[in-house]
Design brief:
binds inosinic acid, 20 strands, Adenylosuccinate Synthetase, subunit A, domain 2, 429 residues, 3 domains, Adenylosuccinate Synthetase, Chain A, domain 3, 13 helices
Protein backbone atom coordinates (compact mmCIF):
# COMPACT_ATOMS: atom_id res chain seq x y z
CA UNK A 1 0.00 0.00 0.00
CA UNK A 2 1.38 3.43 -0.94
CA UNK A 3 0.33 6.96 0.02
CA UNK A 4 2.25 9.49 -2.02
CA UNK A 5 2.67 13.25 -1.72
CA UNK A 6 3.31 15.26 -4.87
CA UNK A 7 4.93 18.68 -4.42
CA UNK A 8 6.46 21.33 -6.63
CA UNK A 9 10.18 21.82 -6.09
CA UNK A 10 10.54 25.29 -7.60
CA UNK A 11 8.16 28.31 -7.55
CA UNK A 12 5.02 26.50 -8.69
CA UNK A 13 3.80 25.77 -12.22
CA UNK A 14 6.03 22.71 -12.49
CA UNK A 15 3.31 20.71 -14.23
CA UNK A 16 2.09 18.91 -11.12
CA UNK A 17 -1.42 18.57 -12.57
CA UNK A 18 -0.31 16.28 -15.36
CA UNK A 19 1.72 14.03 -13.04
CA UNK A 20 -1.10 13.90 -10.47
CA UNK A 21 -3.52 13.02 -13.26
CA UNK A 22 -1.17 10.28 -14.46
CA UNK A 23 -0.51 8.77 -11.02
CA UNK A 24 -4.12 9.16 -9.88
CA UNK A 25 -4.89 6.11 -12.02
CA UNK A 26 -3.18 4.03 -9.32
CA UNK A 27 -4.69 5.85 -6.33
CA UNK A 28 -8.16 5.54 -4.84
CA UNK A 29 -8.35 9.03 -3.37
CA UNK A 30 -6.72 12.35 -4.32
CA UNK A 31 -6.50 15.04 -1.63
CA UNK A 32 -5.66 18.74 -1.88
CA UNK A 33 -4.13 19.92 1.40
CA UNK A 34 -3.26 23.62 1.00
CA UNK A 35 -3.70 26.72 -1.14
CA UNK A 36 -6.87 27.68 -2.92
CA UNK A 37 -7.87 28.91 -6.33
CA UNK A 38 -4.53 30.68 -6.66
CA UNK A 39 -3.44 27.33 -8.10
CA UNK A 40 -4.33 26.23 -11.59
CA UNK A 41 -3.69 22.86 -13.14
CA UNK A 42 -3.89 22.67 -16.90
CA UNK A 43 -4.74 19.17 -18.03
CA UNK A 44 -4.90 17.93 -21.58
CA UNK A 45 -6.99 14.81 -22.10
CA UNK A 46 -7.46 13.56 -25.66
CA UNK A 47 -6.42 16.97 -26.93
CA UNK A 48 -8.97 18.80 -24.77
CA UNK A 49 -7.84 21.40 -22.23
CA UNK A 50 -9.13 21.53 -18.64
CA UNK A 51 -8.09 23.98 -15.93
CA UNK A 52 -8.79 22.95 -12.34
CA UNK A 53 -8.22 25.52 -9.61
CA UNK A 54 -9.71 23.82 -6.59
CA UNK A 55 -10.93 20.36 -7.45
CA UNK A 56 -8.02 17.90 -7.30
CA UNK A 57 -6.75 16.86 -10.71
CA UNK A 58 -7.69 13.22 -9.97
CA UNK A 59 -11.33 14.04 -10.73
CA UNK A 60 -10.66 13.34 -14.41
CA UNK A 61 -9.60 9.80 -13.50
CA UNK A 62 -12.91 9.23 -11.75
CA UNK A 63 -11.25 9.07 -8.33
CA UNK A 64 -12.69 10.26 -5.03
CA UNK A 65 -11.33 13.76 -4.55
CA UNK A 66 -11.04 15.50 -1.22
CA UNK A 67 -10.44 19.09 -0.21
CA UNK A 68 -8.61 19.05 3.10
CA UNK A 69 -8.85 21.46 6.02
CA UNK A 70 -5.62 23.19 4.94
CA UNK A 71 -7.20 24.50 1.73
CA UNK A 72 -9.06 27.82 1.50
CA UNK A 73 -12.16 27.69 -0.68
CA UNK A 74 -14.01 30.36 -2.59
CA UNK A 75 -17.44 28.67 -2.79
CA UNK A 76 -18.45 30.63 -5.89
CA UNK A 77 -15.37 29.40 -7.76
CA UNK A 78 -15.87 25.84 -6.53
CA UNK A 79 -19.46 25.78 -7.74
CA UNK A 80 -18.41 27.20 -11.12
CA UNK A 81 -15.76 24.50 -11.41
CA UNK A 82 -18.23 21.75 -10.52
CA UNK A 83 -20.57 23.11 -13.20
CA UNK A 84 -18.02 23.45 -15.98
CA UNK A 85 -16.61 19.96 -15.36
CA UNK A 86 -20.14 18.52 -15.24
CA UNK A 87 -20.95 20.32 -18.51
CA UNK A 88 -17.83 18.71 -20.03
CA UNK A 89 -19.19 15.26 -19.10
CA UNK A 90 -17.40 14.78 -15.77
CA UNK A 91 -20.23 14.60 -13.24
CA UNK A 92 -19.35 15.74 -9.73
CA UNK A 93 -21.53 14.76 -6.81
CA UNK A 94 -20.83 13.92 -3.16
CA UNK A 95 -19.58 10.49 -4.28
CA UNK A 96 -16.75 12.15 -6.18
CA UNK A 97 -15.96 15.20 -4.06
CA UNK A 98 -15.60 15.59 -0.30
CA UNK A 99 -14.85 18.86 1.50
CA UNK A 100 -13.57 19.07 5.06
CA UNK A 101 -15.88 20.80 7.53
CA UNK A 102 -12.74 22.51 8.85
CA UNK A 103 -11.84 24.10 5.51
CA UNK A 104 -11.81 27.89 5.67
CA UNK A 105 -13.90 30.01 3.32
CA UNK A 106 -12.66 32.85 1.17
CA UNK A 107 -15.10 35.71 1.78
CA UNK A 108 -15.77 38.75 -0.42
CA UNK A 109 -13.86 41.02 1.99
CA UNK A 110 -10.75 38.83 1.64
CA UNK A 111 -10.70 39.50 -2.10
CA UNK A 112 -11.29 43.24 -1.56
CA UNK A 113 -8.42 43.43 0.93
CA UNK A 114 -6.08 41.43 -1.34
CA UNK A 115 -6.77 43.84 -4.24
CA UNK A 116 -6.70 47.01 -2.15
CA UNK A 117 -3.41 46.02 -0.52
CA UNK A 118 -1.73 45.23 -3.83
CA UNK A 119 -3.01 48.49 -5.37
CA UNK A 120 -1.70 50.50 -2.43
CA UNK A 121 1.75 48.92 -2.71
CA UNK A 122 2.41 50.67 -6.02
CA UNK A 123 5.68 49.49 -7.52
CA UNK A 124 6.60 46.97 -4.81
CA UNK A 125 3.67 44.62 -5.15
CA UNK A 126 3.94 40.97 -4.11
CA UNK A 127 2.14 40.11 -7.32
CA UNK A 128 -0.52 37.98 -5.61
CA UNK A 129 -3.12 36.22 -7.70
CA UNK A 130 -5.77 38.53 -6.20
CA UNK A 131 -7.95 35.63 -5.09
CA UNK A 132 -8.04 36.62 -1.40
CA UNK A 133 -5.76 33.78 -0.36
CA UNK A 134 -3.48 35.74 2.01
CA UNK A 135 -6.28 37.58 3.86
CA UNK A 136 -8.15 34.27 4.35
CA UNK A 137 -5.14 32.56 5.92
CA UNK A 138 -4.56 35.69 8.04
CA UNK A 139 -8.08 35.39 9.43
CA UNK A 140 -7.58 31.69 10.04
CA UNK A 141 -4.49 32.46 12.14
CA UNK A 142 -6.12 35.35 13.98
CA UNK A 143 -9.23 33.25 14.71
CA UNK A 144 -11.45 35.43 12.54
CA UNK A 145 -11.96 32.79 9.90
CA UNK A 146 -15.18 31.09 8.86
CA UNK A 147 -15.14 27.39 8.06
CA UNK A 148 -17.61 25.13 6.26
CA UNK A 149 -18.76 23.94 9.71
CA UNK A 150 -19.95 27.48 10.46
CA UNK A 151 -21.31 28.02 6.95
CA UNK A 152 -23.71 25.12 7.47
CA UNK A 153 -25.06 26.61 10.70
CA UNK A 154 -27.23 29.45 9.45
CA UNK A 155 -27.51 31.34 12.74
CA UNK A 156 -23.87 30.99 13.70
CA UNK A 157 -22.78 31.99 10.19
CA UNK A 158 -24.84 35.19 10.25
CA UNK A 159 -23.48 36.12 13.68
CA UNK A 160 -19.89 35.53 12.58
CA UNK A 161 -20.27 37.52 9.36
CA UNK A 162 -21.91 40.47 11.11
CA UNK A 163 -19.20 40.81 13.73
CA UNK A 164 -16.33 40.30 11.28
CA UNK A 165 -17.70 42.66 8.64
CA UNK A 166 -17.82 45.48 11.17
CA UNK A 167 -14.06 45.26 11.64
CA UNK A 168 -13.34 44.67 7.93
CA UNK A 169 -15.37 47.70 6.96
CA UNK A 170 -13.42 49.91 9.33
CA UNK A 171 -10.20 48.66 7.72
CA UNK A 172 -11.51 48.90 4.13
CA UNK A 173 -12.99 52.38 4.44
CA UNK A 174 -10.53 54.08 6.81
CA UNK A 175 -7.28 52.55 5.66
CA UNK A 176 -7.87 51.84 1.96
CA UNK A 177 -10.66 54.37 1.26
CA UNK A 178 -12.65 51.52 -0.29
CA UNK A 179 -16.42 51.08 -0.23
CA UNK A 180 -17.86 49.19 2.76
CA UNK A 181 -19.11 45.62 2.39
CA UNK A 182 -22.72 44.72 3.13
CA UNK A 183 -22.99 41.90 5.68
CA UNK A 184 -26.60 41.13 4.74
CA UNK A 185 -25.71 40.62 1.08
CA UNK A 186 -22.90 38.23 2.03
CA UNK A 187 -25.21 36.24 4.31
CA UNK A 188 -27.74 35.91 1.49
CA UNK A 189 -25.15 34.96 -1.10
CA UNK A 190 -23.47 32.38 1.13
CA UNK A 191 -26.81 30.86 2.21
CA UNK A 192 -27.21 29.70 -1.39
CA UNK A 193 -23.67 28.26 -1.44
CA UNK A 194 -24.31 26.49 1.87
CA UNK A 195 -27.36 24.73 0.46
CA UNK A 196 -25.56 23.60 -2.65
CA UNK A 197 -22.34 22.52 -1.01
CA UNK A 198 -23.73 20.92 2.19
CA UNK A 199 -23.90 17.40 0.68
CA UNK A 200 -20.15 17.51 -0.02
CA UNK A 201 -19.07 18.54 3.49
CA UNK A 202 -17.65 15.87 5.77
CA UNK A 203 -14.90 14.93 8.22
CA UNK A 204 -12.13 14.36 5.66
CA UNK A 205 -9.67 13.17 8.30
CA UNK A 206 -12.03 10.44 9.51
CA UNK A 207 -12.89 9.37 5.95
CA UNK A 208 -9.21 9.13 5.09
CA UNK A 209 -8.52 7.03 8.19
CA UNK A 210 -11.24 4.61 7.24
CA UNK A 211 -10.15 4.40 3.62
CA UNK A 212 -6.51 3.82 4.55
CA UNK A 213 -7.54 1.06 6.99
CA UNK A 214 -9.36 -0.61 4.09
CA UNK A 215 -6.08 -0.58 2.13
CA UNK A 216 -6.99 2.29 -0.20
CA UNK A 217 -4.12 4.31 -1.69
CA UNK A 218 -4.03 8.09 -1.34
CA UNK A 219 -2.35 10.72 -3.45
CA UNK A 220 -1.79 14.05 -1.68
CA UNK A 221 -1.72 16.82 -4.28
CA UNK A 222 0.35 19.88 -3.38
CA UNK A 223 -0.25 23.27 -4.96
CA UNK A 224 2.28 26.03 -5.74
CA UNK A 225 5.90 25.04 -5.02
CA UNK A 226 8.45 24.63 -2.24
CA UNK A 227 9.93 28.10 -2.72
CA UNK A 228 6.50 29.71 -2.33
CA UNK A 229 6.15 28.08 1.11
CA UNK A 230 5.27 30.62 3.82
CA UNK A 231 8.11 29.37 6.06
CA UNK A 232 10.70 28.00 3.69
CA UNK A 233 10.18 30.03 0.53
CA UNK A 234 11.56 33.38 -0.61
CA UNK A 235 9.65 35.31 2.07
CA UNK A 236 7.82 37.69 1.66
CA UNK A 237 7.45 36.75 -2.03
CA UNK A 238 5.59 33.59 -1.14
CA UNK A 239 2.06 32.33 -0.79
CA UNK A 240 0.32 32.11 2.60
CA UNK A 241 0.38 28.38 3.21
CA UNK A 242 2.96 25.67 3.79
CA UNK A 243 3.49 24.07 0.42
CA UNK A 244 6.01 21.46 1.61
CA UNK A 245 5.15 17.78 1.99
CA UNK A 246 4.87 17.91 5.79
CA UNK A 247 1.71 19.95 5.40
CA UNK A 248 0.01 17.08 3.59
CA UNK A 249 -0.53 15.67 7.09
CA UNK A 250 -1.71 18.88 8.84
CA UNK A 251 -3.75 20.00 5.87
CA UNK A 252 -5.74 16.80 5.53
CA UNK A 253 -5.71 15.33 9.03
CA UNK A 254 -3.47 12.26 8.73
CA UNK A 255 -0.40 11.31 10.75
CA UNK A 256 3.14 11.43 9.27
CA UNK A 257 3.45 7.62 9.26
CA UNK A 258 0.73 7.51 6.60
CA UNK A 259 3.06 8.93 3.93
CA UNK A 260 5.15 6.35 2.09
CA UNK A 261 6.79 8.50 -0.58
CA UNK A 262 7.25 12.09 -1.74
CA UNK A 263 7.69 12.92 -5.41
CA UNK A 264 9.10 16.32 -6.29
CA UNK A 265 7.97 17.75 -9.61
CA UNK A 266 10.70 19.66 -11.38
CA UNK A 267 10.34 21.56 -14.60
CA UNK A 268 13.37 20.97 -16.89
CA UNK A 269 14.12 24.69 -16.45
CA UNK A 270 12.92 27.23 -13.89
CA UNK A 271 9.97 29.63 -14.01
CA UNK A 272 8.44 32.10 -11.60
CA UNK A 273 5.37 34.34 -11.73
CA UNK A 274 5.00 37.39 -9.58
CA UNK A 275 7.84 39.20 -7.88
CA UNK A 276 10.87 37.99 -5.97
CA UNK A 277 14.51 37.03 -6.55
CA UNK A 278 15.33 34.41 -9.17
CA UNK A 279 19.10 33.80 -9.47
CA UNK A 280 19.08 31.73 -12.69
CA UNK A 281 16.60 34.00 -14.51
CA UNK A 282 17.30 34.53 -18.22
CA UNK A 283 16.59 38.06 -19.41
CA UNK A 284 17.83 37.36 -22.93
CA UNK A 285 16.61 35.64 -26.08
CA UNK A 286 17.14 32.19 -24.52
CA UNK A 287 14.63 33.17 -21.82
CA UNK A 288 12.24 34.34 -24.57
CA UNK A 289 12.76 31.07 -26.46
CA UNK A 290 11.84 29.01 -23.39
CA UNK A 291 8.92 31.29 -22.54
CA UNK A 292 7.49 31.01 -26.05
CA UNK A 293 8.16 27.34 -26.64
CA UNK A 294 6.96 26.39 -23.16
CA UNK A 295 3.89 28.69 -23.47
CA UNK A 296 4.81 29.98 -20.04
CA UNK A 297 1.74 31.93 -19.02
CA UNK A 298 0.05 31.47 -15.62
CA UNK A 299 -2.97 29.12 -15.70
CA UNK A 300 -4.77 31.30 -13.14
CA UNK A 301 -3.83 34.87 -13.99
CA UNK A 302 -2.54 34.56 -17.56
CA UNK A 303 0.62 36.43 -16.53
CA UNK A 304 3.85 35.84 -18.45
CA UNK A 305 6.14 33.60 -16.41
CA UNK A 306 9.77 34.59 -15.92
CA UNK A 307 12.09 31.85 -17.23
CA UNK A 308 15.60 30.68 -16.37
CA UNK A 309 17.98 27.72 -16.26
CA UNK A 310 17.46 24.75 -13.98
CA UNK A 311 18.67 25.60 -10.47
CA UNK A 312 20.11 22.73 -8.42
CA UNK A 313 20.35 24.88 -5.27
CA UNK A 314 16.55 25.09 -5.35
CA UNK A 315 16.21 21.38 -5.99
CA UNK A 316 18.52 20.34 -3.17
CA UNK A 317 16.67 22.69 -0.85
CA UNK A 318 13.39 21.10 -1.95
CA UNK A 319 14.84 17.60 -1.51
CA UNK A 320 15.69 18.33 2.13
CA UNK A 321 12.56 20.31 3.02
CA UNK A 322 10.17 17.74 1.58
CA UNK A 323 12.13 14.55 2.19
CA UNK A 324 11.83 13.77 -1.51
CA UNK A 325 12.07 10.11 -2.49
CA UNK A 326 12.09 10.74 -6.24
CA UNK A 327 11.72 13.34 -8.98
CA UNK A 328 9.39 13.72 -11.93
CA UNK A 329 10.79 16.01 -14.63
CA UNK A 330 8.36 17.90 -16.85
CA UNK A 331 8.51 19.90 -20.09
CA UNK A 332 11.81 18.34 -21.12
CA UNK A 333 10.76 18.74 -24.77
CA UNK A 334 10.82 22.55 -24.41
CA UNK A 335 14.63 22.55 -24.16
CA UNK A 336 15.00 20.87 -27.58
CA UNK A 337 16.62 23.21 -30.11
CA UNK A 338 19.03 24.93 -27.73
CA UNK A 339 22.71 24.32 -28.59
CA UNK A 340 23.91 24.57 -25.02
CA UNK A 341 22.08 24.00 -21.78
CA UNK A 342 23.18 25.36 -18.44
CA UNK A 343 22.55 24.02 -14.97
CA UNK A 344 23.03 26.29 -11.98
CA UNK A 345 25.03 24.16 -9.53
CA UNK A 346 25.61 26.77 -6.83
CA UNK A 347 25.65 30.48 -6.06
CA UNK A 348 28.50 32.90 -5.56
CA UNK A 349 28.03 35.64 -2.98
CA UNK A 350 30.64 38.41 -2.68
CA UNK A 351 33.11 36.24 -4.57
CA UNK A 352 32.61 33.19 -2.34
CA UNK A 353 30.66 30.02 -3.12
CA UNK A 354 27.39 29.60 -1.31
CA UNK A 355 25.86 26.14 -1.28
CA UNK A 356 22.79 26.80 0.86
CA UNK A 357 19.73 28.78 -0.12
CA UNK A 358 19.93 32.06 1.90
CA UNK A 359 16.98 33.29 4.00
CA UNK A 360 17.91 36.95 3.55
CA UNK A 361 16.48 38.10 0.21
CA UNK A 362 19.05 40.88 -0.17
CA UNK A 363 21.72 38.15 -0.07
CA UNK A 364 19.76 36.00 -2.53
CA UNK A 365 19.35 38.98 -4.87
CA UNK A 366 23.13 39.51 -4.82
CA UNK A 367 23.92 35.83 -5.48
CA UNK A 368 25.40 35.04 -8.87
CA UNK A 369 24.65 31.63 -10.35
CA UNK A 370 27.54 29.22 -10.98
CA UNK A 371 26.79 27.34 -14.17
CA UNK A 372 27.81 24.04 -15.65
CA UNK A 373 27.29 23.82 -19.43
CA UNK A 374 25.99 20.73 -21.21
CA UNK A 375 25.28 20.01 -24.86
CA UNK A 376 21.72 20.56 -26.01
CA UNK A 377 19.80 18.44 -28.54
CA UNK A 378 18.01 19.37 -31.72
CA UNK A 379 15.85 16.28 -32.19
CA UNK A 380 12.16 16.44 -31.31
CA UNK A 381 11.39 14.26 -28.31
CA UNK A 382 7.61 14.61 -27.72
CA UNK A 383 6.97 11.23 -29.40
CA UNK A 384 9.65 9.38 -27.46
CA UNK A 385 8.22 6.72 -25.15
CA UNK A 386 11.39 4.98 -23.90
CA UNK A 387 14.45 6.30 -22.11
CA UNK A 388 16.78 4.54 -24.54
CA UNK A 389 15.18 6.41 -27.46
CA UNK A 390 15.98 9.85 -26.05
CA UNK A 391 18.96 11.63 -27.65
CA UNK A 392 22.30 11.07 -25.87
CA UNK A 393 22.45 14.72 -24.81
CA UNK A 394 18.97 14.48 -23.23
CA UNK A 395 19.95 11.39 -21.27
CA UNK A 396 23.16 13.11 -20.14
CA UNK A 397 21.13 16.12 -18.95
CA UNK A 398 18.87 13.81 -16.91
CA UNK A 399 21.81 11.82 -15.54
CA UNK A 400 23.56 14.99 -14.41
CA UNK A 401 20.42 16.16 -12.57
CA UNK A 402 20.25 12.81 -10.78
CA UNK A 403 23.93 13.04 -9.83
CA UNK A 404 23.66 16.60 -8.55
CA UNK A 405 20.42 16.11 -6.59
CA UNK A 406 21.25 12.55 -5.49
CA UNK A 407 17.68 11.63 -6.39
CA UNK A 408 16.29 9.27 -9.02
CA UNK A 409 14.20 10.74 -11.83
CA UNK A 410 11.26 8.33 -11.81
CA UNK A 411 9.05 10.03 -14.39
CA UNK A 412 9.95 12.01 -17.52
CA UNK A 413 7.35 14.14 -19.26
CA UNK A 414 8.01 15.09 -22.89
CA UNK A 415 4.70 16.79 -23.70
CA UNK A 416 1.38 17.83 -22.18
CA UNK A 417 -0.60 14.69 -22.98
CA UNK A 418 -0.84 11.71 -20.62
CA UNK A 419 0.74 9.52 -23.29
CA UNK A 420 3.78 11.76 -23.61
CA UNK A 421 5.43 10.31 -20.52
CA UNK A 422 8.23 7.87 -19.74
CA UNK A 423 7.61 6.18 -16.39
CA UNK A 424 10.80 4.60 -15.05
CA UNK A 425 9.28 3.84 -11.65
CA UNK A 426 5.69 4.27 -10.57
CA UNK A 427 5.63 5.19 -6.85
CA UNK A 428 2.30 3.40 -6.40
CA UNK A 429 3.50 0.07 -7.81
P1 LIG B 1 -1.13 34.48 -3.53
O1 LIG B 1 -0.96 33.01 -3.31
O2 LIG B 1 -2.25 34.84 -4.47
O3 LIG B 1 -1.21 35.25 -2.23
O4 LIG B 1 0.20 35.06 -4.28
C1 LIG B 1 1.46 35.07 -3.62
C2 LIG B 1 2.57 34.69 -4.59
O5 LIG B 1 2.47 33.32 -4.92
C3 LIG B 1 2.55 35.45 -5.92
O6 LIG B 1 3.87 35.68 -6.35
C4 LIG B 1 1.86 34.48 -6.86
O7 LIG B 1 2.20 34.69 -8.21
C5 LIG B 1 2.40 33.17 -6.35
N1 LIG B 1 1.52 32.04 -6.63
C6 LIG B 1 0.38 31.71 -5.99
N2 LIG B 1 -0.15 30.59 -6.52
C7 LIG B 1 0.67 30.19 -7.49
C8 LIG B 1 0.67 29.06 -8.38
O8 LIG B 1 -0.20 28.18 -8.36
N3 LIG B 1 1.73 29.00 -9.25
C9 LIG B 1 2.73 29.91 -9.25
N4 LIG B 1 2.77 30.96 -8.45
C10 LIG B 1 1.75 31.11 -7.57
Amino acid sequence: MANIVIVGTQWGDEGKGKIVDLLAEHADIVVRFQGGNNAGHTLVINGKKFICHLIPSGILQGKVCMIGNGVVVDPEVLLQEIKSLSDAGIPIGPQQLRISDKTHLIMPYHKCIDHAREARKGGVKLGTTGRGIGPTYEDKASRHGIRFAELLDEVLFAERVESIVEEKNFYLTHFFSEKPINAGAIIEEYRVYAKRLAPFVTNVSAELEEAIKEGKQVLFEGAQGTHLDIDHGTYPYVTSSNTVAGNACCGSGVGPKTITGVIGIVKAYTTRVGMGPFPSELLDETGDFIQNKGAEFGATTGRRRRCGWLDIVLLKNAARLNGLTGLAITKLDVLGGLNTLKICTGYEYKGKPMREFPANLRVLEACKPIYEALSGWSQDIPDTRALKDLPDATRKYLKRIEELTELPIDIISVGPDRKQTIVKKNPFL
